[in-house]
Design goal:
By secondary structure, the chain is of the alpha+beta class. It contains twelve helices and 26 strands. A hairpin with a 5-residue loop joins strand 20 and strand 21.
């Protein structure tokens, strides 16, 4: 395998996964928010959208509502796993073969891959003709060069014609992506990243369909053999019947012998023909089985299985099974230090200045709060592509709203605000006044709403409308801070308290729970399996089980990079953890595979 061919595959795959897919998701979000829908679920559950998508999956179906707009497609581009991701069938009696039998699932934008997001864009969103062409062609390039590419390589000849087109149509959708494309174009070969992207890009549904087709061929061949055997049995019976007739006719007419012999010859000739047909059928079975074996062997060598999530069951170039996200062992160090960045030199900040908070976006970019300079800093994990956004106040905590928007707690002379920033276009989107909040309370996202700590309470903020409501009041806690939201729970501790209690609010039963730790928590983040890493002021990380009943100190913890009130952030999309200490040293960790 030529390394340059493999690198070109990585470059094209990176554009599709890191640029095109988020672009498609953002375009869908823009369409449904401007259309008055509060979430993706509400959008795909609307009459027009569910009706359109229903007919992209179901043939010969006529709906009870809006029947004039029903259509019977010759092709079904929406495959089963995509339809099942978006919709569930309602229980109980109802009209079958109609979209009203289904309801939308609470699917998130980041769950839409390029195939599904492009289908929604092309069929359910309002695109200009140039945008429509760009989406269609980018989807086609993914199919032509990536999703059916089982080699993981792109030749120089293919690349020379593909790359200019990729650039043209990406920039047509978003002209600000020029720098991202340049950065990706010069990306060196990272084999582990290349293998990871391969698992996301390969259309396993197509591969399984090919296996299914081959197995159907095997089944047909077996039926042919069965038919041949039945014919052979019938021919044998014919022979014996002919002989019986011949014997019975010997006493009366000699001519019967001639007739029997003729019939016997005919039967034997038929047997020969059927035996030849069996030989051909068996050869067909052997060929089909060999084709199936070759396909299965190829997929197994790639280490893949088809469960719609394209789960890795055998890591590429590794005989060990990948650790499942439910198998983290408490206290075991599951990360290794990949690199460190000195933010003082990177951002040219003074000796007494500091970076207060950091967030890793799903595309891998890092967003920092730099309170002394009243700005947000943005860069890649290797320290490249440094950008900044000026903030009219002191930024303190930051959280990601989606792939391009962050929410920041900001202090001005006369109060504290939540401000929304577009980190792609580098401008403020809106400012939301939150009475009674303190800048150091923290901020998080849950159920598509922002969460901040008020005076003795947790507050929910609808960042689209600015509406504020109380989630719960908290007895004995003046200001809940170090906020972290995961699943149905919001974690916090009391600002300024020396108490070692980790607290959390549970949406399911509307109660607050507490757990004692060995030291005061300074940062909280969730891992893939739902367990927690809690950074503490003793320079250690405590690993807390998903049910919050057990905890262990993480072995191998380094107090140097955890010195002081460190910030710990894990990103489930990147499988990376970042640790920011009070000396402005950022440590970037990769997860062991």
């Amino acid at each position: 395998m030529d390394r340059e061919d493999q690198r070109r595959y990585l470059v094209v795959g990176s554009v599709i996964l890191e640029v095109v897919t988020p672009l498609f998701q953002q375009r869908i979000e823009h369409d449904f928010t401007t259309g008055g829908f509060g979430s993706l679920q509400a959008f795909i559950n609307s009459q027009q959208v569910i009706h359109t998508l229903f007919h992209l999956r179901h043939r010969n179906s006529w709906c009870c509502k809006d029947k004039p707009n029903c259509h019977n497609p010759s092709a079904l581009p929406l495959v089963y796993c995509q339809w099942n991701k978006l919709y569930s069938e309602n229980p109980g009696p109802g009209i079958h073969n109609c979209h009203c039998k289904f309801s939308a699932n609470p699917v998130q934008l980041n769950e839409l891959d390029i195939s599904l997001s492009s289908l929604i864009l092309l069929n359910c969103c309002k695109l200009s003709q140039p945008e429509l062409e760009a989406v269609q062609l980018l989807r086609q390039y993914n199919n032509d060069y990536l999703s059916h590419n089982t080699t993981g390589c792109i030749t120089q000849t293919e690349y020379n014609t593909l790359w200019p087109d990729l650039v043209t149509y990406v920039l047509r959708l978003d002209p600000t992506k020029q720098d991202d494309l340049v950065r990706i174009e010069h990306r060196p070969l990272d084999e582990s990243l290349c293998k990871k992207y391969f698992t996301f890009l390969l259309d396993l549904h197509q591969q399984i369909e090919e296996i299914k087709s081959t197995m159907e061929s095997v089944h047909s061949s077996i039926q042919a053999v069965s038919s041949s055997l039945s014919g052979l049995n019938s021919s044998t019976e014919t022979v014996f019947q002919a002989m019986d007739t011949a014997v019975q006719g010997m006493d009366t007419r000699v001519q019967g012998i001639d007739l029997a012999v003729h019939r016997t010859d005919t039967a034997v000739q038929g047997m020969d023909t059927r035996v030849q047909g069996m030989g051909t059928s068996i050869q067909g079975i052997e060929t089909s089985v060999q084709q199936t074996n070759d396909l299965l062997k190829e997929l197994l060598q790639k280490g893949l299985t088809c469960e719609c999530g394209r789960q890795i069951i055998i890591p590429l170039c590794n005989n060990q099974r990948r650790k499942h996200r439910d198998q983290y062992q408490l206290g075991q160090n599951i990360f290794f230090l990949h690199q460190q960045l000195n933010l003082k030199s990177l951002f040219s900040i003074g000796e007494r200045e500091w970076i207060r908070d950091v967030k890793m976006m799903d595309d891998g970019r890092l967003v920092f709060c730099q309170p002394c300079e009243n700005r947000l800093m943005i860069c890649n994990t290797d320290g490249s592509q440094i950008d900044s956004i000026s903030v009219q106040g002191t930024p303190w905590y930051v959280t990601a709203v989606n792939n391009s928007i962050v929410a920041v707690t900001v202090k001005l002379q006369y109060g504290c605000f939540i401000e929304m920033y577009d980190i792609n276009n580098k401008h403020i989107l809106k400012s939301i006044v939150i009475p009674g909040i303190f800048i150091a309370n923290g901020i998080a996202m849950i159920n598509n709403k922002l969460v901040v700590g008020g005076e003795g309470e947790l507050l929910s903020v609808d960042y689209q409308t600015g509406k504020i409501c109380t989630i719960t009041t908290i007895k004995g806690v003046m200001y809940p801070c170090v906020l972290h939201a995961s699943g149905d729970r919001i974690f916090f501790h009391s600002l300024g308290s020396i108490d070692r209690t980790l607290s959390w609010y549970n949406y399911i039963d509307n109660k607050i729970y507490n757990k004692k730790l060995l030291s005061h928590s300074t940062s909280i983040t969730s891992l893939q399996d739902g367990s927690l890493y809690v950074g503490c002021n003793d320079g250690l990380i405590h690993h807390v089980s998903k049910d919050l009943k057990h905890r262990e100190k993480v072995r191998g913890t380094n107090k140097v990079w955890l010195k002081g009130d460190s910030v710990i952030i894990y990103n489930t999309k990147q499988n990376k953890m970042v640790v920011l200490n009070n000396k402005n040293i950022l440590s970037i960790f990769h997860e062991y595979q």
